[in-house]
Amino acid sequence: MKMKLTLDGIKDKKSWEAAGVVLPSYDIEKVKEETKEAWEKAGITLPGYDVEAVSEKAKKEPGWVHFGIGNIFRIFIGGIADTLISNGAMDKGITCVETFDFDVVDKIYAPYDNLVLGVTLKADGSTDKKVIASLTEAIKAQSNVEAEWNRLKEIFQNKDLQMISFTITEKGYALKGADGTYFPFIQSDIDNGPEKAGSAMAVVCALLHERFKAGKAPLAVVSMDNCSHNGEKLRNSILTMAEEWNKKGFVEDEFVAYISDEAQVSFPWSMIDKITPRPAESVCKSLEELGIEDIAPVITSKRTYIAPFVNAEGPQYLVIEDRFPNGRPALEKAGVYMTDRDTVNKVERMKVTTCLNPLHTALATYGCVLGYTLIADEMKDEQLNKLVHEIGPVEGMPVVTDPGILSPAEFVDEVINTRIPNPFMPDTPQRIATDTSQKLAIRFGETIKAYQRSEELSVSRLEKIPLVFAGWLRYLCGVNDKGEKFTLSSDPMLDTVCPYVAGLKWGDTEVHEQVVPILSNEKIFGVNLYEADLGELVEQYFIEMLKGPGAVEATLRKYVL
């Protein structure tokens, strides 16, 4: 008599007992039901589908692979799959692949059977809690570990695989440094070939080569990272790796042709928007009080701060170019906007240049100078609240890009009145102030250029955007509005720009020489602010902010209220 170690298998008690195996004396089904009741009593929604069946089908017939398995993936992308499975629109989960921090697999996926506790933080203080069970297999992208590498090859050789997606951050696509040469680890991947791939782009290119060798089945390669023209960035990096390998004889000309043909291998563009901060202590404590064990965050060896739960805001947007040569799940049934490339681009421009990102940047730099540690608290400040209302709905809206599928007015209204003020979102100005120099050109420069092109609008109407620039200059001084030093958030331009303002003192009224190299830098602002007739105004605001302690607040009060 053959016996299987499954819940169904142990129902045949006689066979197990004949084999001398002691089975549980309690009613397993009753225990399962009581356990389910305990979770539901705690206000946590459990999966309504057969988790094991969904997982097994994904392992046998993988249809969707995702690279970069951190927080936004777990609650947003995983949540989309969970919804589709729950609604009967999909019958298998997502295969999860980590390319950078392998501790995430060992410490967060494996110990919790790939389950995620998603916690949605509402503005009224309440939460929605749901166990997401759509993440079915977690694999480390390690070419030097035979079992992991062979499993990935097997998946990519499967003709039924429809899409691979990514949340690896924009940095994950970068192949070259500022000097135009390949990063050493990329050069190593180029020199060593597909079988020794290490970086994310090399790993994906190597696996696409496996798919090519197995029959050239089509595939959609979908970046879901929060960056402009993400599909184009991903395609360029994969193609570059393939071309370099081709030069060295590692891959065929036909392979390069295969991934160059978007009828075979497509690289759809997308726009993603959902604020997913690091796990909050308050959320962890509330879950522990409900009786949930082993839920505390961990810090990995790669400094990833991650927990078995993910806390995030409720509003979320995912817009994807509908280009899937091997078919796709019915993503639209889970709220995903499926559209064309031009519309994706317009949605992204709407968000990044007008309706969300500029407001965040304004709050970030001023928040640091004014001593705030929570973005939501800044919206209680009358001056800062009015400032973001002026930047977005007033100065930005006349030149906003309207994508058609989303209303810019409704989007920015939700941002200002619901999303940013949410006091239960543990998002900080210090985090958002990271890399500000890299953000100003797209977040504000595009609006300035649109005004310059307009026959009806004058740049002279822009008064609050220059105030943001002056606030950034004041931020670069590294002294808060009380006169105390603070630590600037990381930014690749700090060593370049900070020395210009380092010598300024309280009461200085001559700042032109110091700031002209900054304000005239088109790489920072997208335009030369003096040529745009805004440089002098920024200087004026900045001088007023240097009068002494309290001058930043006084300047905001003077020009905003």
Structure description:
With 561 residues, the chain is an alpha/beta fold. It folds into two domains: 45-338, NAD(P)-binding Rossmann-like Domain (Rossmann fold, 3-Layer(aba) Sandwich), CATH 3.40.50; 350-560, N-(1-d-carboxylethyl)-l-norvaline Dehydrogenase, domain 2 (Orthogonal Bundle). The protein has helices at residues 13-18, 28-41, 51-60, 71-86, 103-109, 146-157, 184-192, 200-213, 230-247, 253-260, 281-289, 341-355, 357-369, 375-378, 382-396, 408-419, 429-432, 440-453, 464-476, 494-501, 512-519, 522-525, 535-545, 551-560; strands spanning 44-45, 64-67, 94-98, 116-121, 127-132, 135-140, 163-166, 219-223, 265-266, 270-273, 298-299, 305-306, 309-313, 317-321, 337-339. Strands 6-3-2-7-8-9 form a six-stranded parallel sheet, with helices on both faces. Strands 1-5-4-13 form a four-stranded mixed sheet. Helix 12 packs across helix 16 and helix 15 (382-396) runs antiparallel to helix 16. The chain is globular, with a radius of gyration of 26 Å. The termini are far apart. The model is unreliable at 3-7 (pLDDT under 50).
* Share in helix: 40-55%
> In what order do the strands lie side by side in the largest sheet?
6-3-2-7-8-9
Radius of gyration: 26 Å
Class by alpha and beta content: alpha/beta
CATH superfamily of the largest domain: NAD(P)-binding Rossmann-like Domain
- Tell the overall outline: globular
Give the low-confidence spans: 3-7
N-to-C CA distance = 83 Å
Beta content comes to 5-15%
Count of the domains: 2
SS field, number of helical segments:
24
CATH class of the largest domain: Alpha Beta
CATH fold-level name of the largest domain: Rossmann fold
Largest β sheet strand count, sense and barrel closure = 6 strands, parallel
Number of strand elements: 15
Mean pLDDT: 93
CATH architecture field of the largest domain: 3-Layer(aba) Sandwich
